[in-house]
Amino acid sequence: MRPMSRAVLIAMVVLTAAACASGAPDAPAAPTLYQRLGGRDALKGVVDDFVANVVADPRVNSRFKGLQPAAVAKLQTNLADQICDATGGPCAYLGRDMKAAHAGMGITDAEWTATVEDLVKSLNKFKVGAKEQEELLAILGPMKKDIVGK
């Protein structure tokens, strides 16, 4: 092979390899918390169980007495949408912000703690991993300032 032909061949191989490498897809993105939680159906299961827990919890159930089934269903949908949205899912939370939704309710630190415990109980029941629980609680935790009365 002549020296010029060898140089042209090497250049073609290098260019072809570079073109193939640049056309290769990037490494897949890490799954979102929403995906690691199991998606919409898994979130719905956790939320439905969580709402059942708070309705049965004597530390907070007075807040839910007299709630009509349609209001409970709306609460479940809003909570699922909110968690879905906050964890990187395809949902959009369209409900009121936490400050407006809880204005004038006088929710106490003890009630907040009871509610968090009820959520963790549901997360454990559905075998949500510790890492995912920590991440979810870290997302929801800052809402406390808008929910608990001063």
pLDDT < 50 runs, ≥5 residues? 6-22
Query: How can the largest sheet be summarized?
Result: none
Indicate the radius of gyration in whole angstroms.
25 Å
Proportion in β-strands: under 5%
Number of beta strands:
0
Give the rounded overall mean pLDDT. Answer: 86
Work out the helix count.
8
Give the overall shape, derived from the CA principal axes.
Answer: globular
- Indicate the structural class: mainly alpha
Please write the string of helix (H) and strand (E) elements. Answer: HHHHHHHH
**Helicity range:** 55-70%
The end-to-end distance, rounded to whole angstroms, is 85 Å
How would you describe the overall organization of this protein?
The chain has about 150 residues and is an all-alpha fold. The longest helix is centred in the first third of the chain and has 21 residues, at about 5-25. About 65% of the residues lie in helices and about 0% in strands. Helix 3 packs across helix 4 and helix 3 (about 40-55) crosses helix 6 (about 110-125). It is globular and about 55 Å long. The protein has helices at about 5-25, 35, 40-55, 70-85, 100, 110-125, 130-140, 145. The protein starts with a helix and ends with a helix. The chain has eight helices and no strands. Residues about 5-20 have low confidence and may be disordered.
